[in-house]
Automatic annotation (TrEMBL):
Its cofactor is Zn(2+). Pfam families: Peptidase_M48 (PF01435). GO terms for molecular function: metal ion binding; metalloendopeptidase activity. Binds 1 zinc ion per subunit. Keywords: Hydrolase, Metal-binding, Metalloprotease, Protease, Zinc. Belongs to the peptidase M48 family. InterPro entries: Mito/Outer_Membr_Metalloprot, Peptidase_M48. CDD domains: M48C_Oma1_like (cd07331). This is Peptidase M48 domain-containing protein. GO terms for cellular component: membrane.
Length: 301
């Protein structure tokens, strides 16, 4: 049995053996949930940093500015960021209304391509830095639409303030977990504090990844990349999934199969396809100019 299920069973037994504690815990959870919802929804974005937050040793392995991989990644990133900043109206609804997030124009966007063909990974930092490893770039992003899927996902993490929201959520969850431990005498029953926190954080991480997928799909569509290519990107990653990860407390990403299913939902893919059709028409017009990114490591001004 997985750690998540085992922990859930132990926690449930603790509640059933102490009805009074269960009632108190339930009241605490409801109150905390209401407080959490209000606090996180109003979470402000801290001032953007004009300096890099990436480790110097990591940047030492970055490809040169004029390398074809760097140029290509930055070109696609520029298209997506331009679409975000333009915030055009698609069928009487702005892009920001469709995604549910407005971009902070003070974000200093940077793109770094790191040499490591064995590392299938990309990540973003709240200050607007995006890091792409050559491992995922050269194996799974041969099509620009697949690269746009990857970059759209990372840009979505930034504009949706996922890092800041996660910091706050983790703090509140730790407080809540401590309350539950005191009420149920959880440490005595063998439930480590870290596991209890992970139990609550796991669905939160999954929800943010799925939100970044959906928002990223809208962004790449608005940038003129076909959203119907996005599912094939995640299907290609399915062999890398470890089935056991879906039942461990440390898992932070849903399975590729589930991500494809969410993207293929009619109200998601259908909306993105309509945005894409209008974006293509706009880009073919004389006013459809492409935003240019400065050399890697410098700010987008």
């Amino acid at each position: 049995m997985s750690n998540a299920r085992c922990l859930g069973c132990r926690l449930f037994r603790g509640w059933t053996h102490s009805p009074r504690a269960a009632a108190a815990a339930a009241a605490s959870i409801v109150s905390a949930a209401a407080w959490l919802g209000k606090s996180i929804s109003t979470c402000p974005l801290p001032p953007s940093q004009s300096r890099t937050l990436c480790d110097g040793k990591l940047l030492a392995r970055a490809l040169p500015d004029d390398h074809r991989d760097t140029v290509r990644v930055r070109r696609v990133a520029a298209d997506i960021i331009a679409a975000v900043r333009e915030d055009r109206v698609f069928e009487r609804r702005r892009l920001s209304e469709r995604t549910g997030h407005r971009v902070d124009h003070d974000i200093h966007w940077r793109v770094h391509v790191i040499i490591d063909d064995n590392w299938i990974c990309a990540f973003s930092i709240y200050n607007g830095e995006i890091v792409v490893y050559t491992g995922i770039l050269r194996r799974y992003c041969r099509k620009d639409a697949h690269l746009a899927t990857l970059l759209g996902h990372e840009v979505a993490h930034v504009i949706a303030r996922h890092t800041q929201r996660t910091y706050r959520m983790r703090f509140y969850i730790r407080v809540l977990a401590k309350c539950i431990e005191e009420l149920l005498d959880a440490p005595v029953r063998g439930i480590p504090h870290a596991e209890l926190v992970s139990l609550f954080m796991r669905p939160w991480h999954f929800s943010l990844e799925l939100e970044a997928d959906r928002v990223g799909l809208m962004l790449l569509a608005a940038a003129g990349y076909d959203p119907r290519d996005a599912p094939s990107f995640y299907r290609a990653l399915e062999p890398l999934d470890d089935p056991s990860d879906q039942y461990t407390l440390t898992a932070t990403h849903p399975s590729s199969k589930r991500r494809v299913e969410k993207l293929m939902m009619e109200h998601v893919m259908g909306e993105a396809t309509k945005v894409f059709s209008q974006a293509v028409q706009w880009r073919m017009s004389p006013s459809g100019l492409r935003l240019k990114l400065p050399p890697a490591g410098r700010e987008l001004v």
